[in-house]
Design brief:
This protein has 415 residues and is mainly β. The chain has one domain. Helices cover 5% and strands 39% of the residues. The chain has two helices and 29 strands. It has a 19-stranded antiparallel beta sheet that branches. A hairpin with a 5-residue loop joins strand 16 and strand 17. The radius of gyration is 24 Å and the shape is globular.
């Protein structure tokens, strides 16, 4: 694909699955060397009997089933925090096009500020009429601390955890763009993508149609950027010409150095969170895709467009690496594991939005009802003792709010 430093990958939501539309490309910068295309065109032998011993029929070409590409991207927050006066405009960032297509569900709205002096550590009154900006299951950022909204009652928000202190009047309550699994939205009209890949040479251009991304992992280490591994599943592909390397259209806050990553979880028997520094994590969403050759209608554009994609279930896993500072750390995790708890977990990376909504935002991954997938493991790395923790996400059965978002077993929040 030419020189990787000028390779350009862009996406555009399709109005109708696999069909051309008015194109308004948003650039999706990939990591150098990560783009791995798949250009299948099924080879069908023609086995018709022939009269001569060594005669052979020319093979035929079938569908382009299995097309797509693998690539890696940096996961970034918003260029401006969703404060009280900052409008939400879907998809808000370029990469949210890929996240929405992978997960199926996305919500976002403006934030607010604390109203009056009646806020507590977990009950937040917002400005009159602003309660409709929030939903059960989204995350908010107050004083640099993320929390999930459990209940919206009028213009009052109930959080899933206690803040370090009750926020004062007019404290910003930043809203988030929240992505969550909604299997009905995956692969449907309006949520599939067209993907354009441009190389250095004018002839080195590919268009993929009917694309649904498979988000295979989000991972990082301390003092590194957050990397998202994506396998783009496509219904068809074609070589193309005439596309130009115009000025990029990129909307996001830039790649974030997650040097201050922390994992937040409820202390056993208390609503107060315990903050633990995490030096390494790997988040596997488990949003597997099943390809099907049945459109469900008679209007199949061509033999080359044969596959739709639907979600099917795999485990959502979170692997964490923690440093052990004392024997008490190991004993605490052993005791927590033995009690078989359900833990609401949040990982927060990057800087929280500053007053006024300017500056780089944060990335938060939440699992509201995680359970241990394996016992804590004691390890040694770089002459230090550490603990490896493995969690599996479950839907939040305890919530009284029904629906894909309130019960979602995993969510990604961008601030």
């Amino acid at each position: 694909m030419g020189y990787t430093d000028v390779l350009r990958v862009s996406t555009d939501p399709e109005t109708v699955f696999g069909v051309d539309q008015v194109e308004s490309w948003r650039d999706q910068p990939v990591l150098e060397g990560s783009y791995q295309p798949r250009w299948p065109h099924n080879h069908l032998p023609d086995m018709t009997a022939v009269a001569r011993l060594h005669a052979r029929n020319a093979p035929k070409l079938g569908s382009k089933f299995g097309a797509g590409f693998a690539a890696q991207y940096y996961l970034a927050g918003l260029s401006a925090g969703l404060g009280s006066a900052v409008a939400y405009s879907a998809p808000q960032t370029s990469f949210l096009q890929i996240l929405r297509a992978a997960y199926g569900g996305v919500v976002g709205n403006s934030g607010s500020t604390v109203l009056g002096g009646g806020a507590t550590v977990n009950t937040i009154p917002v400005q009159v009429g602003h309660g409709v900006r929030f939903q059960n299951g989204v995350a908010v950022m107050i004083g640099g601390v993320p929390a999930t909204v459990l209940v919206v009652a009028g213009d009052s928000l109930t959080l899933d955890r206690d803040l370090p202190s009750a926020p004062a009047n007019n404290t910003p309550v930043y809203n988030s763009v929240t992505v969550y699994p909604d299997e009905d939205g995956v692969g449907g009209d309006g949520n599939s993508l067209a993907c354009r890949v441009l190389g250095y040479d004018a002839s080195d251009q590919t268009i993929y149609r009917g694309c649904v991304p498979l988000l295979t992992a989000i991972r990082t280490e301390i003092d590194n950027l957050i990397v998202a591994d994506v396998d783009m599943m496509a219904a068809s592909w074609a070589q193309t010409t005439g596309e130009t390397l115009a000025a990029p259209t990129i909307v996001d806050g830039g790649a974030l150095p997650p040097v201050a990553g922390r994992i937040w979880l409820h202390a056993i028997g208390s609503s107060s969170p315990v903050g633990l520094e995490c030096h390494r994590f790997a988040f596997t969403p488990g949003l597997a895709l099943q390809a099907t050759r049945n459109f469900g209608s008679a209007t199949v554009p061509s033999v080359e467009t044969v596959a739709r994609f639907r979600q099917h279930r795999q485990d959502c896993r979170l692997e964490l690496g923690l440093r052990v500072h004392a024997r008490d750390d190991w004993d605490a995790w052993r005791d927590i594991y033995s009690s078989k708890p359900t833990l609401p977990i949040m990982l927060a990376f990057g800087n929280s939005p500053i007053a006024g909504g300017a500056g780089t935002g944060a990335v938060v991954i939440s699992m509201p009802a995680a359970v241990f997938a394996a016992p804590p493991q004691r390890v040694e790395e770089d002459n230090e003792v550490g603990i490896n923790l493995s969690f599996m996400a479950r839907e939040d059965y305890a919530t009284a709010n029904l629906g894909d978002l309130p019960q979602a077993h995993q969510r990604i929040h961008l601030f």
